[in-house]
Every structure is written in structure tokens, then in C-alpha cells.
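Sat 14:20. Reprocessing the chain from the morning session after the first attempt stalled halfway. Input below, unchanged.
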Amino acid sequence: MPPYSGLLLEDVLLVKTPEQALAARDALLACDAIGFDTESKPTFTKGEASTGPHLIQFATDSKAYLFQIGSRTDEATLATLQAILEPAAPLKVGFGLSDDVKRLYAKLAIRAGGIVDLSVALRTPGQRNDLGAKTAVAKFFGQKLQKSKKISTTNWSLPRLNSSQLLYAADDAQVALRVYRQWLLTGGQLKPMKAVKLPRPAKPAAGS
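Finished this time. C-alpha cells:
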């Protein structure tokens, strides 16, 4: 199969300024659906808790917007992310989003709404296993999605990401949106999705 062709680097915006954040918000909220994913620094030690997400990716049909998330997130960026993620619209489309949604809540207290997990939505009757992005791209486009394990396991918490990381992250979000649109064109029907079960907030310590 021919390789899947994703976004060009010039179509990927790493959001760095309040003006860029507002422009990204407006562009994304104008859509009926957007691609969505997150990246986190990998953990290699048993029992080690993830401190992610360290990168949040959104994509329209022609562009991707990436937000880096450090140990602290300023109020303006948090408000922008809440405006994009919490409403039911636009739909946030991605693959295997359960952990992404839980990490968003744990780190930023964001309750993501309008989540469409294609891993579940694209299951055919009688199919139990989730459908991954590689399988979906092969099915709907007849192309091979190449996902580098070397890039996927890089340190996403670094303040400076290289071009390979940016393209990988952007394509992770946009490929989901492209598959979603093709699925609808071929007769796919979106059914109500179960909300991801979020962990209960930690109880305050005694005497606090």
C-alpha cells in the first residue's frame, strides 16, 4: 500500500502566544468536528505515574494546533483549552481517547465533552476489539499509516520539540478527523458515546 500523506510542517502551529491561542480557539470552534489527541512523556518504571499530558493536539481539515503543557498552565491558556474541550461542540474525534480524557481531568481539571472515540465507533457488528488508526487508514484510504515508535516514545515534556515530533503529533490528531469524515461519507452513523468515567477528586487531608 502507498504511504499515508499527512500535514506539511507549514500547516502545523505550535501555539506560543495569547494571540495565537485565541486564533486557534476561534478556528477550532468554527468547525463541526476536530481531530484531537494528546502526548505524554512515557513512563518506563513499574508504578510510575504519568505527569501528562505534555502536548495537546487539535486539527481541522487543513491545519493542526499544538499546545504544550508544562507543570503549570497559565490562566489564559487554561481558559482557551476549556473553551475548546468542555462544550459538546465541536466533536473531538480521535483514537483511544479514554486515557487522554482522564489525564486532562487529572492534570488540568478539564471535563472534555463531545468526545468521539473512533476505536469504539468504527467497530462493526460482532467486533469486540477496538479499531486502531493504522487499520482504519488501510480500510478507508488503502494507505499505510507509518507511526514511528522511536518518535512516539520520545520525551514530550521537553520545552523544544523537533520537527519530527511536531509532524507526528499533528498527524495523530488530523488522521482521526480524516477517517471520521470518510466513514460518514461511506454511510457511517455516529451513535451516542458513553462518557469516560473520570476518577473521583481526592479527599482533602484531615485538618485541612
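The chain has one domain: 9-185.
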